[in-house]
Amino acid sequence: MKTAIIGAGQGCYAVLELFERGQLQFLHLEILGVVDINPRAPGMELAKQKGWPTLARIEEALFLPGLQLVIELTGSDEVLDKIHHLVPAGVRVMDHVAARVFWDLEEIASDLRRELLEKTELQARVARDRAQLQHILDAIPDMVVVLDADKRITHVNQRFELIAGKSPEMVRGELIHEVLDKTHGEDWTADVSETHEKVMTTGRPVIVTRSRPTRAGKEGHFQISADPIFDENLEITRVVVTSREITEQVMLKRETEESARRFQQIVNAVHGMITIKDLEGRYQLVNPRTEQIVGIPRVKMIGSTAADLFPKEVADLIHHNDQKTLALGRRHAVEEVMTVGGKERFLLSERFPLTDYSGAPVGICCVSRDMTRRRQLQSQLVRSERLAAVGKLSAGVAHELNNPLSGILTFAEDLLLEAAPDDPRRKDYEIIVNETMRCRRIVRDLLEFSRVKPRDSTARH
What we know:
Elements lengths: L1 E5 L3 H12 L8 E6 L6 H9 L3 E2 L2 H5 L6 E4 L4 H10 L5 E3 L1 H44 L3 E6 L4 E4 L1 H7 L3 H4 L4 H4 L2 H21 L3 E6 L9 E10 L5 E10 L1 H23 L3 E6 L4 E4 L1 H7 L3 H4 L4 H4 L2 H17 L3 E9 L2 E13 L5 E10 L1 H47 L7 H35 L1
Parallel strand pairs: 1-2, 1-4, 2-3, 4-5
Antiparallel strand pairs: 6-7, 6-10, 8-9, 9-10, 11-12, 11-15, 13-14, 14-15
């Protein structure tokens, strides 16, 4: 519609801007000219910039070729009367009041378009958020299902779809017990219903563990957790139920506990002393044999240091050997002599550092054998060997002495027999015979000792 605008004030400027931005397309306007007696009016300046004709007289505008519409924006009744008086037949006139209504309608239309755009953007954002939520659910390796208060499904993830064999579109809005039949998980459905009811009743998260055979018939363990979702009024609107297979964790825990049990049985059965201390020297493990030797209950030793339990010289020796093992960073063996419980103990101790996964030391293990009894037996053996050597030496000495004594005794007895009763030498011969006999008794005793002592000593060993 070919149009002339009379009055180039702020109203004209606004209309021209709307036209320029394409917001008046529904009127199909074609501006033929802008009229105002002030060539510097805002509308006149904008029209010049955009290349629309500018006029100074109303008469010029009313007789523009093909004119169909005149828009009066001066706000003057005199100008409006003049336009009505001069306007050619068939040309419509829109006064400033009607133009204002048109302006308001345009503002309303703009608001509606803006609201529609915002609504469209909001819907797109909601769609993106829903898609992102679904991506997050699908990324969870556990089976996840979201139920409303009536146990109807609102969301599921790909893991659920894989187990149930049904897509989210197929199960959304369905009751959980109608979706999973006996083949797909009757027990699981019962667990979901149970945890759902507990959450709805208590308003707190619920976690249960179930053990049942897997589809392959093997031992299986599962953890079912349910968490509430609240609305702005703190009412529970949904429950998120997650099923996680924990068979591997259960088996690993069982294996770890079994290994710990076997280790404890071995430690308790070992006849030697076994202790484990941390880097601060506090006892972490003490076997029964250690308790028997040191005479201190294990419950008292655990968490204590050697300085808390033993005399200073003993504690200093233990601490010194521990620190030397840590400094070496490897196995270290040493003999230790210490007085414990009033008794002197000879220990052969082997220490080695305990490390973590990175190789850093975390403690010290000490394995000791009580060598006290062996040391005593060794001492007895040495004494027995010494006695045997003395017996052997005595036998040799006795044999060496016995021969000359026999000769002396024989000659003395012969001289005694040949001597007359009143012979003054007879008394000397008698002394020789008696002393020789006494020497022979000594030799006989030595021979007796050499025969008995080795035999007795052998019997004790």
